[in-house]
UniProtKB/TrEMBL annotation:
Family statement drawn from the similarity comment of this UniProt entry: Belongs to the ABC transporter superfamily. Drug exporter-1 (DrugE1) (TC 3.A.1.105) family.
Subcellular location, record wording: Cell membrane
The name this protein goes by in its record: Daunorubicin resistance protein DrrA family ABC transporter ATP-binding protein
InterPro entries: AAA+_ATPase (IPR003593), ABC_transporter-like_ATP-bd (IPR003439), ABC_transporter-like_CS (IPR017871), ABC_transporter_ATP-binding (IPR050763), DrrA (IPR005894), P-loop_NTPase (IPR027417)
PANTHER family noted in UniProt: ABC TRANSPORTER ATP-BINDING PROTEIN, DOXORUBICIN RESISTANCE ATP-BINDING PROTEIN DRRA
Tagged with keyword Metal-binding: no
Length: 328
């Protein structure tokens, strides 16, 4: 299988931080690699290097077999890029936006027009195609932006946090569109900080933190790193959350996680999850701790990130990557 994206030892430094610290990536043809990490982890820096918008300080990268430094125009001709924010001209209609992209790629007006109408149909935007895009919802703008990345039918698609800021319904629509693209054989690099997104869409996942890959594998392989199952309980009275935490600590493997906002307590157990759950329920009943919900579940990718880094994936400790990119 051909590797459509290959990066080795990517390093990128800004004045105040090292955004990438030796990142390696491989994306075989027709697969989806999920690049997972919090804000500031280095995801967007990696995307900008692969899209030839930044040059690495060290390391090499090839996209569709073309070196990003030796032939950036060749790379650009073979990729579609959709960034974190929809890059559409709000004064143009949806059709005019897509037609303009086609013309910029050197298509004839007729071919660009046909391609624009085809993509509007595919992305469920046909009814709004002749309206100014400033009248579109956030989800519609994101779909239009993604359609623009596909005008030239690139073999490689790079999506940088494509569902950031979308409501749950719009996010589900974007996931459906992305799954269709992958089923058609598109090679995709997907950056995200949404764990369920990587779990749902990616064949393989690379978890990065502070510019380094800290884990890689399939969703199931990464989940296996945390071991066992999780007992999760939600108390009726937040004042009893410490009592619940003590009950779970008696059966837990590792630290018990508490979330007072959600009134939840979570603990990993190594074996006999059902038996451990029964033990916890008996203890809580004896202590008079009322529960709103309780259950046994398999570890999620959120659990994986917490295990690997000691913090949740949505935590944004620094945000320095984006700030320093703007300065540069």
């Amino acid at each position: 299988m051909t590797d459509m994206i290959r990066a080795t030892g990517l390093v990128k430094r800004y004045k105040n931080t090292t955004a990438l610290a030796g990142l390696d990536l491989v994306v075989p043809e027709g697969t989806v690699l999920g690049l997972l990490g919090p804000n500031g982890a280095g995801k967007t820096t990696a995307v900008r290097i692969l899209a030839t918008l930044l040059q690495p300080d060290e390391g090499t990268a090839q996209v569709a077999g073309i070196d990003v430094l030796a032939d950036p125009m060749g790379v650009r001709a073979r990729i579609g890029l959709s960034g974190q924010y929809a890059a559409v001209d709000e004064h143009l209609t949806g059709f005019e936006n897509l037609e303009m992209v086609g013309r910029l790629y050197g298509m004839s007006r007729q071919k660009a027009s046909v391609r624009a109408r085809d993509l509007l149909d595919r992305f469920d935007l046909a009814d709004a195609g002749d309206r100014p895009s400033k009248t579109y919802s956030g989800g519609m703008r994101r779909r239009l932006d993604l359609a623009g990345a596909l005008v030239a039918e690139p073999p490689v698609l790079i999506l940088d946090e494509p569902t950031t800021g979308l409501d749950p319904r719009s996010r589900q629509q974007m996931w459906a569109v992305i799954r269709d693209l992958v089923s058609d054989g598109t090679t995709l690099l997907l950056t995200t900080q949404y764990l369920e997104e990587a779990d749902l869409l990616a064949d393989d996942i690379v978890v990065i933190d502070h510019g380094k890959a800290i884990a890689r594998g399939t969703a199931d392989e990464l989940k296996s790193h945390t071991g066992g199952e999780r007992i999760e309980a939600v108390v009726a009275d937040v004042a009893r959350i410490d009592d619940a935490a003590r009950a779970l600590a008696a059966v837990a493997h590792g630290e018990v996680q508490t979330d007072p906002t959600r009134r939840s307590v979570t603990a990993a157990v190594e074996d006999d999850g059902a038996g451990r759950l029964m033990q916890v329920l008996q203890t809580l009943r004896a202590d008079g701790v009322e529960l709103l919900d309780v259950g046994l579940r398999r570890p999620t990718l959120d659990d994986v990130f917490l295990t690997l880094t000691g913090r949740a994936a949505e935590d944004d400790e620094t945000g320095t990557e984006t700030k320093d990119e703007v300065r540069s």
